[in-house]
Amino acid sequence: MLISNYLNEKVKNGTVHITLIDPMKQSADVAGRLALTAQEVGSDLILVVGMGGLTQKNLLETASAIKEKISIPVVYSPVGAEALCFSFDALLFSSLLNAKNCSFISGGQSKAAIVLKRMEVQTIPVGYLIIEPGMKIGEAADLDLIPRDNYWMAASYAVAAELFGMEYIYLEAGISAAQPVPAGMIRAVKKELSIPLIVGGGIRTAVDARRVRQAGADVVVTGTIIENAGYRERLRSILSALKD
Ligand code: 1GP
Hints:
The protein has 244 residues and is of the alpha/beta class. The chain has one domain (3-243): TIM Barrel. The protein contains nine helices and eight strands. The chain has an eight-stranded parallel barrel, surrounded by nine helices. Helix 2 links the parallel strand 1 and strand 2. Helix 7 (183-192) packs parallel to helix 8 (206-215). It starts with a helix and ends with a helix. The model has no long low-confidence stretch (mean pLDDT 94). It binds SN-glycerol-1-phosphate (1GP). SN-glycerol-1-phosphate binds at residues 20, 172, 175-177, 200-203, 221-224. SN-glycerol-1-phosphate is lined by residues 20, 172, 175-177, 200-203, 221-224.
């Protein structure tokens, strides 16, 4: 299955939900169980992202534990070239466009590019933009950070990414951000784009999810909510706000 076709079809039919799992935050077995819950509740795709200290072993074990349990696609988004694994259905090939450190824009990606092409790995080109506060990734990348009230700056970067040929734009407030990307910014970016918009970071409740969806997000990513007790119900209420 071509994952970009799968995603495009889903986007045509409504808002897509992605559950983000960081292999460093739980054992591989637990990651598999979380992915299964996400699938049962209605998530469309699992995105594996290792935010810090990801090892090859960890990634391989988590990938196989998740793949064993679920049938929805599992996609890997490498932060650098720290660990690679070919058992994912596809790879988000993201460029962090508002980084000042060029290893986040194209340097890290170039280290893996030839191998990915030779192995015929499906890659989905994504223009990734970090919005204030940005959290951990913001600190690591040394950013031209987009302030929460600078809608023009966000839209300008997003349109530049579209013109570069990216298939998706991803507005990221940061893992565990206190608030999601502002609805006004999502609206302003969406208005300028002809490609789908992914929004993530700080989405904790059904109210957040509905706001982000109504502002124009085509794809909504949540991560942290599955790390806490009661995650099945919380995820269920987010999914109902996105899919009703
Ligand atoms: C996906 O970074 C997010 O874009 C995940 O953020 O952990 O805050 O849901 P949360």
